[in-house]
């Protein structure tokens, strides 16, 4: 990690401590300690296991994308990819550092940078598609509750959906309307050229065109392998499903029974969309606000609500930062490239 990234990490941890302190300002220490003492730790282990499955499923997705070109790409190596992604997503605005971090980690294992870029892009488009699919299901189940109880959050949820939907539309345009997309990008970049030196503008155009070409070529290849595409979509769907279930198991750990798993899971999908709108790394502030507002009706005790929110953030955000640092420190294992004649898609 560079010095800049280390400073970003320290700032985010400090910001998290500040938000936690602010959230706890009206909570009596005695009540908080009692809530911690009465936690059912077995349910918390289930919640922790959900995060483990979240990382594990993404690692398997990486393996599936890589296996057509490389041998000896172990689960250990593949697991470094989502963990590095979590770390750099968590310390950069709009999670912009996750994609370069994935490419860097795969390149460390000996995967060609162009191939690694394609894998990261295809993983991203499948992830975005499953986010939108989960959102549509969650809207059917939980939006009426959101609109009636917390109508002021409805706009944020809608904006979050439009943001993710626009990303999907853009990626699909590249996949199925390639020439139009290239022309549209050239037109969109014209105003950018007004503010950049000719050399820098030309380099930017070249870089964007290369990424579009790489993504298009990889998407064409992948759409021919419908079995792998279906497997990756299912794995990503379940990856997100386990992530979305975490608040439910935290509530069970706090002794709340008779809670609808489907409703709680659906509301967590909506939190995910609200959080994506906040440019601050990790959605700091927005994530905490969304959680406490959406789940206040399920956890009437204020001290338990704040504790649930803190546990949720530790599992879904700070755990990823910690594991990401470990992943970046691990020594990468080298892969072996498969000769062209032996590749499955050349048969």
Could you explain how this protein is built, in words?
- Helix content is 77%, strand content 1%.
- The protein has a two-stranded antiparallel ribbon.
- It is mainly alpha-helical.
- The chain has one domain.
- The radius of gyration is 21 Å and the shape is globular.
Strand order of the largest sheet: 1-2
SSE run:
HHHEHHHHHHHHHHE
The shape is globular
The whole-angstrom Rg is: 21 Å
The low-confidence parts are none
How many β-strands, per DSSP?
Answer: 2
Tell me the domain tally: 1
Give the overall average pLDDT.
82
Class by SSE composition: mainly alpha
Number of helices: 13
Helical percent range? over 70%
Strand content: under 5%
Q: Main sheet, how many strands, which sense, barrel?
A: 2 strands, antiparallel
Give the termini separation.
Answer: 41 Å
